[in-house]
Amino acid sequence: MSRIQRLPQDTINRIAAGEVVERPASAVKELVENAIDAGARRIDIRCDMGGLSRILIEDDGCGMDADDLQLAIERHATSKLKPQDDGTWDLLHIRTLGFRGEALPSMGSVARLSITSKPKGGVAQALTVDAGVISPLRPSAFGGEHGTRIELSDLFYATPARLKFMKSERAENLAIAEEVKRQAMAHEDVGFSLELDGKKSLKLYRESTGFEGRLKRLAALLGADFSENALLIDQAREGVRLTGYAGLPTFSRGNALHQYLFVNNRPVRDRLLAGALRAAYADFLARDRHPLAALFVEIPPEELDVNVHPAKTEVRFRDPNLVRGLIIGALKHALASAGHRASTTVAHQTLTGFRVEPVQPILGFARPTPSQLAAVRPYMAPEPFQPAARVEPSPSRSYGEWGVHEAPAAFAPMSFPDMATASVAEALMSDAPVDVDVAAEMPEAFPLGAARAQIHETYIIAQTSDGLVIVDQHAAHERLVYEQMKQAMAEGRVTRQSLLIPEIVDLEREEVARLINKASDLEAMGLGIEAFGPTSVLVRDIPALLGDCDIAGLVRDLVDDLTEHGELLALKERMAEICGDHACRHSVRSGRRLNADEMNALLRQMEATPHSGQCNHGRPTYVELKLKDIEKLFGRR
Fold this sequence. Notes:
Elements: H1 9-20, H2 24-37, E1 42-48, E2 54-59, H3 66-72, H4 103-110, E3 112-118, E4 125-130, E5 133-134, E6 138-139, E7 147-153, H5 160-163, H6 169-186, E8 191-196, E9 199-204, H7 211-222, H8 224-228, E10 230-237, E11 240-247, E12 252-253, E13 259-263, E14 266-268, H9 271-280, E15 290-291, E16 293-298, E17 304-305, E18 316-317, H10 320-337, H11 344-352, H12 370-376, E19 389-390, E20 406-407, H13 422-429, H14 436-440, E21 450-455, E22 459-464, E23 467-472, H15 473-490, E24 496-506, H16 509-516, H17 519-524, E25 528-531, E26 536-543, H18 551-564, H19 569-585, H20 596-608, E27 622-626, H21 627-633
Parallel strand pairs: 1-8, 13-16, 19-20
Antiparallel strand pairs: 1-2, 2-7, 3-4, 3-7, 4-5, 4-6, 8-9, 10-11, 11-16, 12-15, 13-14, 17-18, 21-22, 22-23, 23-27, 24-26, 25-26
Helix pairs in contact: 1-4, 2-6, 6-7, 9-10, 15-19, 15-20, 16-18
């Protein structure tokens, strides 16, 4: 008897179901993609008990007639691939989300599947598949003019062992919602609704195609803060285009869950793309912070292999280095164009830190009501503002014994640097309009305003035309020093250190050739190498910044980078890390008192330096508070 046997059809279907339908969210993904491929402009999704009890998806796509409906539940039957003139089937120019024809028969083999479909101008037909058993076709009712309604009940009931691997209902619901969000991001011109256990979870209306509509859809899914703090990405290179939006460095998260990547409108999870996103933000974020982004890669289908994973969540690029370089370059260009801009959430978080405390009665007297104040105001003579007198506290006097016109030393008026002239001071104390000459002496028109004070020898207070700015002097100067060092490196002004005894590093023959091909690039970064036989390289110079480093380890890291990415990441990242540490040590420290000219010079340099809105660790260098928000704190608005 032969040891090799043919599997029965129902077993084949269940094996396929294990690959394609991993969990309820996988079934939702497959059915939603089928609806989008059918031209749907509205997709309604309802799930019960984490999708294990029921998944119902209805769309307004083109629908299917009786013949197509019967073929749709057969394995490897699809409308998305077409035979060529020579009889072969083209797998290189796939422009649809699905193409294998496995989803529906796989679901029908492990659950109860009911399909109702109506083509435009046709009659609605329905059939059911119960654990692989197909019922006869029958007429049915369908609410719309055309479309398809699919109901999947008791998922995995035919394979009860699979149910043991399902998570809680809440976890499965979250996975379904996340999958629907990804599909909705990729297709802003499609309306989506999601109902979980009878509760409306998501309602998205159709948006116009293009950047504006896509940003509205992303804002609806990621929050209004994302649209206010996102940078537009639109770059192309050699037929590959990258579009989308990426958040400012100060608008970051503690995990990478809010990074969405799409290839030809297909949601994917790709380490190459995720690594490129991380590399682009390497100069701006600490290792425990992650940017928010929704990036869309458009690439000719023949340059892409989507048939590398049963669930189609992974892709393979013919030229991965081209795609990676495009992503890094486009993101860095967008971040540079942001200048010193910081996220709006920084100001919001600052304002929420203020608490308005109720005013306590003074010396036992009750606070007058607004109506009482209004009644006596006409009889009150205007008095010039007098700052509270500075009185040294006496140990013999308790807090309750302070007079009305006295204040303890801790509440003495703040001393400001001598920046404003007497005319400006007098103008601010009066109700008269400020004349042109006085206004010229107040340079608040600059984006970061004019310095007015330094508090705790750490923070600069600057007045702008419509608010104020608080600057962390150390963080801001750290970024300025770092950018200067980066500019010097980019221009080839890297100090080199010649080794007293050149170091020989043994490598493979192919690795030596790969490294020597990049010798000129390494030379520009201060690393002098040359071939030393077929399997070794000789290192004569290293960047002075590296100091006493593991040269052999660095060279092997460079070879690994060239093999995997085609770039010299190890040296760049190591030098960037050292530059960051150097900038931190040699920037203006907290606790140093600055005069007015020094503070204003720092502000002007920040305005002229890209990325100055955050330090090298991703923290904001300044907080901007608008006047209207400050007025709200004091009840003026």
